[in-house]
């Protein structure tokens, strides 16, 4: 099983202009631990919304790559959005689920995935173009490449250890991180 | 089941009713490029217009709760988005609306009302009766429209307020208006 911090750090190495949406709770701390970035957007409420935020962004910026990095709890609460993504088939969207099988933020209660519910299988059923299951850090570079160049929609199911990690907390000012993201992504210009 | 009841739930708004066309034109004029919706007979014509429009990306959702995330994502990408939903769907969205208010995300929602006028299904009444209050509690400005003649003005105003001021604005199309247009 993966160390989530190490895995996310490997995915975001030399990220360039990758647009990142981080899911509520531990995934936001994992992404922030790699260094705050104007092209990061952190979700602080609305559990279950992260994949849809990624879809709206991917459809708005078809010239850029979008990576959603979230947890199993958020993905389970927004399972329907996998079907919605499957209908739209955004080529530039990847959803990475860091699945520790537990709700780390609320006291490590088991999630449905601990009982065998298969998120990767769900993504396959929802017509994702590429579905990758990762449990070894050796695959990190390949997954990183996929985020930058693979044809989406891509679903990465990463089995991570259920351990407590120090909280690395980014801004909780939704207005500030919105404007920062909009300005930074606009400054990238429109790629042809 | 009574055949007339079955039929009465499946009537589409009259093709001659023009207000869906006017809403579509207003959304375009305001630069809306993403429209999220859950299939609905009151919105059927407007949804078809959006689907046929190359300048609008239509996103069919499994649940209205997906809409807030879509609108937030579109805004982050520098685009404007609107949602077309039924009043029952407003209840599905409550917690998700927090992401719009917390970030000052401009959002126009056009809501077709149920449970308020000549609705054959009494189970629709609870959510229909609390739709406007729910939206207000969630931080939305609400415009209620009872007459077809007011649709254009109200939707246009909603767009001005939302996209010009990063506000969340809902236009509630009354069930009587929809019925008189040949809807449910």
Features:
heterodimer, A: Rossmann fold, six-stranded parallel sheet, two-stranded antiparallel ribbon, 8 helices, B: 184 residues, alpha/beta, Rossmann fold, 6 strands, 18% strand
Description:
The complex is a heterodimer of chains A (192) and B (184). Chain A is an alpha/beta fold. Chain A has a single domain, classed as Thiamin diphosphate (ThDP)-binding fold, Pyr/PP domains (Rossmann fold, 3-Layer(aba) Sandwich). Chain A has 8 helices and 8 strands; from the N terminus they run αβαβαβααβββαβαβα. In chain A, the strands form 2 sheets. A 6-stranded parallel sheet of chain A has the order 2-1-3-4-8-7, sandwiched between helices. The longest helix of chain A is centred in the C-terminal third of the chain and has 14 residues, at 174-187. Chain A is globular and about 45 Å long. The mean pLDDT of chain A is 97. With 184 residues, chain B is an alpha/beta fold. Chain B has one domain (3-180): Rossmann fold (3-Layer(aba) Sandwich). Chain B has helices spanning 3-8, 19-29, 44-51, 66-76, 87-93, 97-103, 125-137, 151-165, 175-180; strands spanning 32-37, 57-60, 80-86, 107-112, 141-145, 168-173. In chain B, helix 2 packs across helix 3, helix 2 packs parallel to helix 8 (151-165) and helix 5 (87-93) crosses helix 7 (125-137). Chain B is globular, with a radius of gyration of 15 Å. The A-B interface holds A 19, 21, 41, 43-61, 78, 80-81, 83-84, 87-88, 174-175, 177-178, 181-182, 185-186 and B 33-34, 57, 59-63, 65-79, 81, 95-96, 98-99, 102-105.
